[in-house]
Amino acid sequence: MALGPVGNVIFVNQQTPAVATIKADHNARLDFQNMAAQHITNEKEKEVQELRPTEENQQIDPDREHQKEEAEQEQKNRKKQKKADEQEQTDAPVIHHLDIKV
Predict the structure, then answer these.
(1) Which of 7, 19, 52, 62 could bridge to 3 as Cys pair (CB 3.0-4.6 Å)?
(2) Rounded to the nearest 5 degrees, what angle is found at the Cα of 16, between the Cα atoms of 10 and 21?
(3) Per-residue confidence of the chain (102 residues) as pLDDT tens digits?
(4) 3 state SS for 48-78
(5) Euclidean distance between the first and final Cα of the chain, in Å?
(6) Cα–Cα nearest to 73, from 61, 65, 85, 83
(7) pTM for the whole thing?
(8) 49-56 contact pairs (CB < 8 A, 24+)
(9) Spatial separation of the C-alpha atoms in residues 68 and 29, rounded to whole Å
(10) What dihedral do alpha carbons 78, 81, 87, 93 form, nearest 10°?
(11) Residues 11, 4: contact at Cβ < 8 Å?
(12) What are φ and ψ of residue 80, in 5° steps?
């Protein structure tokens, strides 16, 4: 069926509601996807914003500092003792006995 310029305009205008419905559905789908993505992003931000109460700083306990110093001193003494033991082992004379039987 051949259409002229006027008939073509009428034919296109008659098809407009069908095309417009498809386009409107597509736009609605994109809008819904954007809304869902925005909702997910907002939920993630809320999770990040949830904070626990701040912890109070512990005061310095002089007894505890004293214990720390004692532990460090004991470690130094152990290292010195270990070095002294190694030195004694290297300085001790080595005696070898040969037991030869014929």
Answers:
(1) 7
(2) 165
(3) 556 777 667 766 676 677 677 777 777 888 888 888 888 888 877 766 667 777 777 666 666 666 778 888 899 999 999 888 887 777 656 677 778 887
(4) HHCCCCCCCCCCCCHHHHHHHHHHHHHHHHH
(5) 129
(6) 65
(7) 0.29
(8) none
(9) 66
(10) -130
(11) no
(12) -65, -40
Q: Which amino acid is at 25?
A: D
Tokens at 27, concatenated: 């736009």
What tokens were used for 85?
């033991």
Residue type, 102: V
The SS3 call for residue 2 is coil
